[in-house]
Amino acid sequence: MTTRYRKHEAKDYARERLRGVWAATLTPFTPGLAVDEAAWLRNLRHWYRDLGIRGLFVNGKQGEFASMTVAERKRTVELAVEAAGNDRGVMVSCSDQSLDTVIELARHAQDVGAEYIVVHTPLLYFGAHSDDTLYEYYRHIAEQVEIGVTLWNQPPDCGYTLEPETCMRLAEIPNVVAIKYSVPRATYARLSRMAQGKLIVSTSNEEEWLDNIVELGWQVYLCSTPPYLMQTAVDRRMHEYTELAFQGRVEEARRLRDSLDPVRRALKGSRPHGKAAAHQKFWQELLGQAGGPVRRPLLGLTDAEKDATRSAFAASGLRLA
To answer: Of all helices (H) and strands (E), which one includes residue 194?
Structure first.
């Protein structure tokens, strides 16, 4: 077992280290739909080193974990931890409908040196998502590992909201350290006020990130794809406005944040309905990163959709060199 801290140290460790910009990864596949390990390593090096991303959220929903085998999920984690070295972080999504699989992946993440795990609220049936059920679910998972556990709730995907009061009950578990909370701002702001150092709160909406630093005292962006879709090695405006905000230079940060509006419009405006993963992978390719195809049941882009994305990309204003 390789751990940087013990269970009773998890909250303090996360308050100190779970900071800055963390990105949710897309998984590159070969034309034959195998995991493209060489491409994955190139992307990892680019994200960590060229873009300066503090940490990666590996094998999440955007990473197509549901179409990957357990062995593939373990291998991508091993490579991500290797690429991270001692100065970057890895948070491993162990989400799965099988609790045995969640625990197997959680123990593996800990054993290979990941800093944290993250587990999505489970899909439950016939109203079974009671506070007691959810508490016991996370308590049992957290009991299996020493490292920090991040909660993850995206109500459209599981069918219910992990209410702030339930989050605070879960925050009493020694190694529950954070939540990726994909809910309306009023809800996550309420939890942020309740948490008071007991739980690190974040969401994936990049457009709200700066205001959340300033108004809610947030310390981490956790997590989605903008950190590497909206930045290049020579155009790191998200990183820069984040650092300005942390330094208290808010007006400068806002001007830089707002300068990314053409990129945001290009990304959103060219994304076909139901094809987020394929669209983002194609955008990666336009940036010079490895993208590749998506696995079934997801659909790839048509030629017309690729043409529209190319045009939007060219008009985005992102600097490539």
So the answer is: helix 185-195
Residue 111 CB burial class (10 angstroms; 0-12, 13-18, ≥19): middle
**DSSP H or E run through 285:** helix 276-287
Which residue's entry shows tokens 């909660």?
A: 151
Residues with Cβ < 8 Å from 241, sequence gap 6 or more? 210, 252, 253, 254, 256, 257
User: What is the C-alpha to C-alpha distance for residues 281 and 57, in angstroms, rounded to an integer?
Assistant: 16
- Please answer whether residues 240 and 213 qualify as being in contact, where contact means their C-beta atoms are separated by less than 8 angstroms: no
Quote the distance between the C-alpha of residue 90 and its chain's center.
10
φ, ψ of residue 232 in degrees (nearest 5): -135, 175
d(CA 180, CA 182): 6
The beta strands (E) that lie in the chain are given as 20-24, 55-58, 89-93, 116-120, 148-153, 176-181, 200-202, 220-224
pLDDT means per 10 residues, the chain with 321 residues, are 87 98 98 98 98 98 97 98 96 98 98 98 96 98 98 97 98 98 98 95 97 98 96 98 98 98 98 98 98 98 98 97 81
pTM over 0.85: yes
Q: Which amino acid is residue 193, in one-letter code?
A: R
Paired residues of 91 in beta bridges = 57, 116
